[in-house]
DNA sequence: GTTGACACCTGGACGC
DNA sequence: TGCGTCCAGGTGTCAA
């Protein structure tokens, strides 16, 4: 599932392909993905030129002349750049047609993805972006920030998955960050000491930087485009490694459920107390 | 205000 | 082989 590194990879790929393309028409094949008025969405997109492809956390922000097309890929969303004559596949839900007979198609098997169209001036102070927290790369992502945001009684895993606290982490990278920081995912957030919070800050950056440099993680449900696969899955320490030996101590990796999510831990390296 | 459960959705894995 | 069931998971909504 696309998390920050995967979305960044998609952004980089997409930027090379669709920058300066003008949208001349579009087809919405599954309208539930559109979260703003569908008629306005259609009307306002036509005639707009793509000026930049940006990213905020797991959101792709396609900057047009007057609007931002805000796209969240959720579980399995992906963009395919195709020629007009190419066959349309079963799970294509949106087609943006450009003036040069090429198309950008949004493909999503589980139909979980969302799209908003917002005027540029209204983009960052309205949903879905208004309540987002800070990315680990932000200079304000500090011990003080994390201390204040983690002053709650939830499991640390649930807090790190909360996009109003840490922007861009999903299940895979939270599993990896907590393993590297040697913190059990069921620890209560407000019981973590400064040393542990600093370990989270450091490992968040480290894990995400490494994942971005390797093009993200390619697992069953995610790839950035037909011919591009991420390589970070070879670096995974715990995620999807149930029954295998811990790379640190050799103890068997366990799978538990925390906050309803499949969670992989080393029971020796990540003690709850 | 905070927290957890559930719905959304489909395909793959698995058991029978 | 075919069928039914469970599981995967990011986020919004709703109930406790």
Describe the structure.
There is one protein chain. The chain has 273 residues and is of the alpha+beta class. 24% of the residues lie in helices and 21% in strands. The chain is built from 6 helices and 10 strands. It has helices at 4-18, 38-45, 143-149, 156-161, 171-180, 194-213; strands spanning 23-28, 52-56, 59-63, 67-72, 78-83, 92-98, 102-107, 114-119, 254-258, 261-265. The strands form 3 sheets. It has a 4-stranded antiparallel beta sheet, with helices on one face. A hairpin with a 2-residue loop joins strand 2 and strand 3 (59-63). Helix 1 runs parallel beside helix 6 and helix 5 crosses helix 6 (194-213). 37% of the residues are buried. It binds a DNA duplex (16 and 16 nucleotides) through loops.
* Distinct helical segment count: 6
Low-confidence stretches: 219-224
In what range is the share of β-strand residues?
15-25%
Largest sheet: 4 strands, antiparallel
Look at the structure and give the mean pLDDT. 88
Class per helix and strand makeup: alpha+beta
Topology pattern, helix = H, strand = E: HEHEEEEEEEHHHHEE
- Rg, please? 20 Å
* Alpha carbon gap, first and last residue: 31 Å
Anisotropy-based shape: elongated
Helicity level, as a percent range? 10-25%
Strand order of the largest sheet: 1-6-7-5
Tell me the total number of β-strands. 10
């Amino acid at each position: 599932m696309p998390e920050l590194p995967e979305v960044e990879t998609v952004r980089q790929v997409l930027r090379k392909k669709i920058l300066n393309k003008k949208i001349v028409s579009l087809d919405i094949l599954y309208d539930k993905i559109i979260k703003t008025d569908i008629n306005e969405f259609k009307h306002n997109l036509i005639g707009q030129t793509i000026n930049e492809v940006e990213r905020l956390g797991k959101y792709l922000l396609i900057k047009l002349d007057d609007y931002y097309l805000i796209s969240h890929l959720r579980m399995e969303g992906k963009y395919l750049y195709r020629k007009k004559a190419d066959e349309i596949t079963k799970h294509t839900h949106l087609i943006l047609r450009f003036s040069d007979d090429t198309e950008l198609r949004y493909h999503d098997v589980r139909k979980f993805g969302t799209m908003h169209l917002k005027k540029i001036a209204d983009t960052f102070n309205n949903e879905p972006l208004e309540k987002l927290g800070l990315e680990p790369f932000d200079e304000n992502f500090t011990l003080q920030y994390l201390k204040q945001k983690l002053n709650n009684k939830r499991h640390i895993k649930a807090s790190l998955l909360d996009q109003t606290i840490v922007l861009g982490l999903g299940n895979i990278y939270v599993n990896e960050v907590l393993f590297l920081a040697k913190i059990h995912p069921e620890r209560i957030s407000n019981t973590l000491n400064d040393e542990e919070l600093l370990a989270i800050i450091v490992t968040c950056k480290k894990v995400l930087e490494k994942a971005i440099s390797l093009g993200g993680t390619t697992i069953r449900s995610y790839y950035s485009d037909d011919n591009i696969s991420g390589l970070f899955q070879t670096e995974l320490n715990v995620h999807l490694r149930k029954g295998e030996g811990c790379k640190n101590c050799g103890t068997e990796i366990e799978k538990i459920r925390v906050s309803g999510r499949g969670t992989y831990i080393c029971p020796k390296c990540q003690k709850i107390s």
